[in-house]
Write a structure and sequence with these properties.
This protein has one domain (2-147): Molybdopterin biosynthesis MoaE subunit (Aldehyde Oxidoreductase, domain 3, Alpha-Beta Complex), CATH 3.90.1170.40. 36% of the residues lie in helices and 34% in strands. It has helices spanning 12-22, 53-70, 101-117, 139-146, and strands spanning 2-6, 28-35, 44-51, 75-81, 83-85, 90-98, 121-127, 132-134. A hairpin with a 4-residue loop joins strand 7 and strand 8 (132-134). Heterotetramer of 2 MoaD subunits and 2 MoaE subunits. Also stable as homodimer. The enzyme changes between these two forms during catalysis.
Amino acid sequence: MKVLVQEAAFDAGAVANEFTASAKGAGAIVTFTGVVREADAGEMTIMEIEHYPGMTQKALEKIASEAIERWSLADALVIHRHGRLAPGDQIMMVATASRHRKDAFEAAEFLMDYLKSRAPFWKKEILQDGSADWVAAKDADEDALKRW
C-alpha cells in the first residue's frame, strides 16, 4: 500500500505501470485519475487545496487499509495533490489490485467516494475576478459514500 499527499505533479501512466508491475498475483488492476475541472460558469482560474499533513496522511492510510482488508486487495495506491492547481491538472489517482475485477472496481470506487467527500482537504476556487469561494460538499457526493 502506498499513500502520497504531495504538491508535485505525477505521471499517471508511469505510476500505473509501476503499480501494475508490482501487483504480483493480481488478475485485475483498476486505476482512476481525477482532473481539476472548470467551475460551472468557467470562471475558475485556480483551485487551491489545503490540508493538515499528519492528519491527512493518517486518514488516507486508514481508508486505504480498510479497502485492502474489505476487498482482499493485493495492493492499493492513493495519490492526492495539494497546493495551487489549474483546470486540467491532475488532482488525484487511485489504483487497486485484486485477484478479480469486481473487488478492484468496488475498492477503487470506495476510495474515490471517500476522497471526494471525507478526506481532510479544503478546496478554494480562485475566480477570474480575483474573488475566492470555498467549495462546499455536495449532496450527491455524500449519497455516493452512503452505499459503502
